[in-house]
Design brief:
- This protein is an alpha+beta fold.
- The chain has 3 domains: 64 residues, MutS, DNA mismatch repair protein, domain I (3-Layer(aba) Sandwich), CATH 3.40.1170.60; 56 residues, 5' to 3' exonuclease, C-terminal subdomain (DNA polymerase, domain 1), CATH 1.10.150.20; 163 residues, Dna Ligase, domain 1 (2-Layer Sandwich), CATH 3.30.1490.
- Strands 5-6-1-7-8 form a 5-stranded mixed β-sheet. A 4-stranded antiparallel β-sheet has the order 9-12-10-11. The chain has a 3-stranded mixed β-sheet with strand order 3-2-4.
- A hairpin with a 2-residue loop joins strand 5 and strand 6.
- The N and C termini lie far apart (64 Å).
């Protein structure tokens, strides 16, 4: 039997969770992200806000201009992750393999468990029903013969939609005269290139496939296959060891020129990276520093280290990178680990061999936290669990900025 794939996509997930938990928000243009007076972007918004032209990744100031009477809220990622785990329990009950694209979206391979197209469609409807009955949320679900068609199907009747694309011929019939942007991986830049040679519809791609491949190379080969409804990709469950990097970044509400404050922020961000790496039992062989300056110029600096997930060693390496970077007003700072693996070996250093002569990593971390306690009057050591929850990290570093 050929593949049967279900694609599930929650409707305005963050906003829907907040509306579910606070019914007074229902029917209002709810915008999740930064607040209007802050720097940042829209994470997601309710469908009422979308009517004003607000959308994900929009600058929050522009969202406020378009929808000044909207309700603006910070996201609560701990809550969304908890709800996502509940969703996964429902989805996994019906799939032999699940590929999570985000907290609120997944491909489910139901080929074996369903055994037939009719049973697969019943599973899809059951997922919709259970999502509403058990979690009070709506989702859009697509059932199809391949991953791309399943995603297309889930988008066809959004929000709270359900759609089926049983065969390759059905996919082609549906897409043939639509704009090329409907095809997976055809973004704005790729579309502009194709528009530039007069290719505007899926039918044009089919009829001029050689030109598309000549223009776009390997991507063009993939796009022409999609235009004919061909997608042989399998559902690939995410495995923590597949992670290529783990990072954490933060945007300051005012540009920062104080390098010592930047270092203090790096310490907390490095501790957050350590916790994320520990959760998936991974180590990194490289440290990256990301900076966005006041003029919006981005730079990334990196260096190789022995495999580690130690916050103090991440921090110390990031500080070296920071000190070598251009010293200008900073808008955003981030730190990360890359070249991830589940194996660790530690290169012995002088302080590890002779701890009486120098501080151990634990000593250095304890000293760094004591220094922060004295500098900012906050009990960092006693409140780390709370600091790394939700938006508390952001609020803590903002407090540090204001009191540095």
């Amino acid at each position: 039997m050929d593949q049967i794939i279900i694609h599930v996509d929650m409707d305005a997930f963050y906003a829907s969770v907040e509306i579910r938990d606070d019914p007074s928000l229902k029917g209002k243009p709810l915008i999740i992200g930064s607040l209007p007076r802050e720097r940042g972007v829209v994470a997601t918004c309710s469908y009422e806000a979308r009517k004003f032209g607000v959308h994900s990744a929009m600058n929050i100031k522009e969202a406020y201009r378009l929808c000044p009477n909207g309700v603006f809220m910070h996201p609560n990622f701990d809550k969304y992750r908890a709800v996502s785990s509940q969703l996964h329990e429902i989805w996994n009950a019906y799939a032999s393999a699940s590929e999570y694209i985000a907290l609120d979206e997944a491909y489910l391979d139901v080929t074996e468990k369903a055994g037939s197209w009719e049973n697969a469609c019943e599973i899809a409807r059951t997922i919709k029903r259970r999502t509403g009955d058990e979690l009070g949320l709506t989702c859009s679900v697509g059932v199809a013969y391949c991953k791309s068609a399943a995603k297309t199907a889930s988008e066809e009747k959004k929000p709270d939609g359900y759609f089926e694309i049983p065969t390759q011929a059905d996919f082609v019939d549906l897409m043939i005269d639509r704009d090329i942007r409907v095809l997976y991986t055809v973004g704005a830049k790729t579309a502009e290139k194709l528009y530039g040679i007069g290719i505007r519809t899926v039918r044009d791609i089919q009829q001029r496939k050689d030109e598309v491949i000549h223009l776009l190379g390997k991507q063009g080969q993939w796009i022409t296959q999609l235009a004919f409804g061909i997608d042989e990709r399998k559902v690939s469950p995410y495995k923590p060891e597949d992670a290529k990097s783990i990072s954490r970044e933060l945007t300051f509400q005012e540009d920062v020129t104080d390098i010592e404050l930047l270092k203090d922020a790096l310490l907390l961000l490095s501790m957050s990276v350590e916790r994320r790496a520990a959760r998936v039992e991974l180590y990194g062989e490289g440290v990256t520093l990301k900076l966005t300056y006041a003029d919006m110029k981005n730079i990334t600096r990196s260096s190789m280290i022995p495999p580690t997930r130690s916050a103090i060693r991440i921090y110390e390496e990031a500080v070296k990178l920071l000190e070598r970077a251009p010293q200008r007003a900073v808008r955003l700072i981030g730190v990360g680990l890359y070249h991830m693996s589940n194996e660790s070996w530690e290169q012995l250093r002088f302080e590890d061999i002779l701890p009486s002569e120098a501080q151990t990593p634990k000593d250095r971390m304890d000293a760094a936290l004591i220094r922060l306690n004295k500098k900012y009057g906050l009990d960092f050591a006693g409140n780390l669990d709370r600091i790394f929850q939700g938006e508390t990290m952001y609020k803590t570093i903002e407090y540090m900025r204001k009191h540095s």
